[in-house]
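FW: tagging you since you asked about this chain on Friday. Here's the raw sequence from the shared folder, copied in full. Didn't touch anything.
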Amino acid sequence: MFMQRDVAELMRLMQALRRRRPPGHAFSALAEYELTHSQGQALLTLQFDGPMTISTLAEQVGCSVSACTGIVDRLEELKLARRGPKPGDRRVVMVELSSKGNKLASKAVAVIQAHLSQVLGLLSAEDRKSFLEILRRLIDAVEALSQTKPVS
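HL: got it, structure written out here
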């Protein structure tokens, strides 16, 4: 019962955060390109993690490989990304941002960083430290959970 209340509260809080996106949130920086959320996620993933295969990008973005192929097609059409052979193994196709894609992603990252600085600035130094430590532990726990076999 206690855990169910915690789960319900977590879901409510996540919804509240989602609804309170500021006017200058990251995806507003991408609006001129009319990118979908998944296309924006792919752009930012490539910005943070660098060139990767479509299957790796699909895993990172949380979509199927076929859906990711469509996402990359759109980013290529907008000249934000390009496909090319992996150095040393031309059989493997890599996706990377173009310079135009890097500039756009950097603009979105700057918006994210400015917003997060404002939000974290509302917390005391002690609360920021606690929040970030709990978030790290949560990510570690989720990662460990993802390594276990699902219960059927």
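FW: DSSP finds six helices and two strands in the chain.
HL: agreed, and The two ends are 22 Å apart (CA to CA).
FW: great, closing this out.
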